[in-house]
Amino acid sequence: SELFQVLTSPQSKPINSALNHIKDISKGPSFLVDEFLIQVPVLLASSVKAVVNSTIAICESLLKCRPEIKETICLALIDGFVKNDEGIQKKLAKLITRYGTNEIVSLPFSGYTQYILSSVKPLLSSFLEAIPEAEEASIQIPGMEIQPLPPLISTENELPAITSF
Fold it and tell me: What are the Cα distances from residue 32, in Å, to 27, 28, 37, 59, 164?
């Protein structure tokens, strides 16, 4: 648990050292997976590519060693799609398609579809197709009437149409 405290450091060198040690002990049965998964979104948002790649490598080894928590790990990996790096997004997409299932993983993808690069979308096509379409008035409050929006241009401030050169 002391190694996880290092992961919040502002410098990348101690984070890389801690991730190397975490990679070594992550295969053990007493590894604190839940504490590590809490740190994964912050690590994936790091500006240092080595930190992101090490985090993905640790998650991949956890996916291989502990198949019973594969859905939880896949959900944590979805946060990495905010990175605008094609290589990182492809690694994440391959892991999620290999270990994730549509029922659990497709719904969190709805918030990240705008960040997924066009070259990566074909890899995630089965997950992106399973996202339910948003309905126009999905939230209904009992006893409250929904008012239509007023027109943007009223007759008072409408500009006359151009009829000549």
Answer: 10, 9, 9, 13, 75
pTM over 0.90: no
pLDDT, position 159: 81
**Backbone φ/ψ region at 14: left (φ over 0), alpha (ψ -120 to 50), beta:** alpha
* Dihedral sign from CA coordinates of 5, 7, 11, 16: positive
Q: What is the DSSP letter of 116?
A: S
- d(Cα 59, Cα 61) in Å, to the nearest integer? 5
Nearest-angstrom CA–CA distance, 146 and 40: 41
* DSSP H or E run through 34: helix 33-44
- Please give the average pLDDT of every successive group of 10 residues along the chain, which has 165 residues: 84 90 87 89 89 92 87 87 87 87 71 81 77 50 72 76 86
Rg over CA atoms, the chain = 23
Q: Which two tokens stand for residue 20?
A: 């190397």
How far, in Å, CA of 130 to CA of 87, rounded? 24
> Which three-class secondary structure string do you get for 39-108?
HHHHHHCCCCHHHHHHHHHHHHHHHHHCHHHHHHHHHHHHHHHHCCCHHHHHHHHHHHHHHCCHHHHCCH
